[in-house]
Design goal:
two-stranded antiparallel sheet; 7-stranded mixed sheet; alpha/beta; Rossmann fold; binds FE2/S2 (inorganic) cluster
Length: about 170
């Protein structure tokens, strides 16, 4: 878009990550288009003096982005690529072993979120995507089951706690 063009959007919907849960060494895990939502979170956690680690997962070196931006914030950044052309070969979970973390925040495609759920040993928060009708809690089209009953991803989410997720 060009500067000055107008957008008609609904913003400020749903919840967000809770920084109070992070502990001193939060880990951020992003895959593909799930990477940008973690940038501002990283900025806020660094402003609080937290020792932040970041795992960024992509298919190949050509897709890698935001690595330097996170490094400029003072985070320790680990890149994984499925084809091994940059960083650790494999998925984001392949970089977990050598990172010391107190809590995690993640955003990315659902298969990645599920793998992160199974591979992590601390509590954490997951940002989900869902097909949406209304976007503000009226149609129930984005409803999903959790351990605490049905929740709407658009209004009660998109962030769910690890402890409440049912796959
Ligand atoms: S999209 Fe309508 S309730 Fe979530």
């Amino acid at each position: 878009m060009k500067a000055g063009e107008k957008l008609d959007v609904l913003v400020g919907l749903g919840n967000g990550y809770n920084l109070e849960n992070s502990g001193n060494k939060p880990l951020l895990i992003g895959g593909g288009v799930g990477v940008p939502p973690l940038y501002n979170l990283c900025k806020k956690l660094r402003a609080e003096g937290k020792e932040v680690s970041v795992i960024l997962g992509f298919n190949s070196k050509l897709e890698v982005f935001y690595k330097e931006e996170f490094e400029k914030l003072g985070a320790s950044v680990f890149v994984t690529t499925v084809d091994g052309s940059e960083g650790v070969k494999g998925f984001v979970t392949n970089a977990l072993d050598n990172i010391d973390y107190t809590y995690f925040y993640t955003c990315g495609p659902e298969p990645m979120l599920k793998a992160v759920y199974n591979a992590t040993k601390t509590g954490g928060e997951f940002s989900f995507e869902e097909r949406m009708g209304c976007g503000f809690g009226a149609c129930m089209g984005c409803s999903c089951k959790t351990k605490y009953g049905n929740k709407r991803i658009c209004k009660d989410g998109p962030v769910l706690l690890k402890e409440e997720i049912i796959w």
